[in-house]
Amino acid sequence: MDTSVVIERPTGSGVAGAPPPAIGITGLTVTYGKVTALADFDLQVARGETVALLGPSGSGKSTALKAVAGFLRPSAGRVTLDGRDVTHEPPNKRGIGVVVQNYALFPHMRVADNVAFGLRARRVPRAETARRVTEALDMVGMETYGRRYPRELSGGQQQRVAIARALAIRPPVLLLDEPLSALDATLRSDLLGELQRLRADLPDVAILYVTHDQTEALALADRIAVMRDARLVDIDTTDRLYRRPPSEFTASFLGAANLLPARVAGPCAADAADARAHVGPLTVPVDPARAFRADDLATLVARPHTLTIAEPEAPGVLRGVLTGTQWRGATYRLTCVLDEPAGTEVRCDVATMDGVPALGAPVGVRLPAEPCVLVPVGGVA
Ligand code: ADP
Ligand code: MG
């Protein structure tokens, strides 16, 4: 796990002058009978920050979110909110806004009453409640729907109301668990844009956003925490994790990635500027995600859109055979099988078919001019 850019501090106490994180999770472990759903999980989310928990189904994302919300009891570890230990507090004492996948609106209540629910439970005065309901519905573009029942709304509208309900209590922390995954593609894209706007309207709120969808994580998160098998595998800023993934798993989960077998040319430290590796017949500059020794086997990560096609005999290319072309609208995805490292399949996204040979013909694949990241071997299921 690469935590080099994460500022670690004891949760809750805060170093002198630095405020405690809005959400502090330390050593959190959750078991269901014999299943460990979350193992020794650490995460801090700062005020105003959005962190996406990204991982495949069953990796423990919802379990982490539920433990923060107070919906389940961890078997070990702590949760703090603004430095206050809430591990043993019930959900309604935590003052958190929660939005889940399937809306979970009260079907027998009108929209306005759904949104007012948390305020009434907190005995907020009537006039103030009305004001906040209007404000929250306004934030999600649903101000004219207050008198409808949930069944009279589309899925996207219901999810907007669920977000308004979570926001009405003006929570310092907002938890969203796959809020878009029940919607069809168009609605999902609309609501994603809406969430981006909302994020800008809530500069002080800490957001933990659970998703298995890399598009949502890339669009919304300041940092992404990648999960697998109940554990945090990698965490970094969104941009860095995409451009410089530290593991095969993160590289292939956060976007398409070619994983090319490589051998390290000489000892190098993590981030070394002069590191090189052998890939097939080539020796190329690489960006090592961690320290390697000479001759270590490693994996070179190259995103399909960074590769280009060349003549098979051109200098500095990996030679192979074109085995597939797929039109994807904006680009064509070419599949090539390399001569060396023998049998390695690479995918290459190109804007035009100009210069692309016929299927079965020899082709050259050129790596990007920028050094590709070099990661340890293994880790993709
Ligand atoms: P995710 O949200 O990443 O899909 P979850 O946190 O829901 O994953 O689940 C993590 C693991 O815990 C899975 O193996 C899942 O089957 C298991 N699990 C989740 N909830 C329960 C439960 N109530 N009882 C037993 N096992 C559960
Ligand atoms: Mg889940």
TrEMBL record:
Domain (ABC transporter): residue spans on this chain: 23-254
Keywords from the UniProt entry: ATP-binding, Nucleotide-binding, Transport
Keyword hit for tRNA-binding: no
InterPro entries, per database record: AAA+_ATPase (IPR003593), ABC_SmlMolc_Importer (IPR050093), ABC_transporter-like_ATP-bd (IPR003439), ABC_transporter-like_CS (IPR017871), P-loop_NTPase (IPR027417), Transp-assoc_OB_typ2 (IPR013611)
Organism superkingdom: Bacteria
One of the Pfam families matching this protein, by short name: ABC_tran
Keyword Methyltransferase: no
Gene Ontology molecular function terms on file: ATP binding
PANTHER family: SPERMIDINE/PUTRESCINE IMPORT ATP-BINDING PROTEIN POTA, SPERMIDINE_PUTRESCINE IMPORT ATP-BINDING PROTEIN POTA
The protein's name: ABC transporter ATP-binding protein
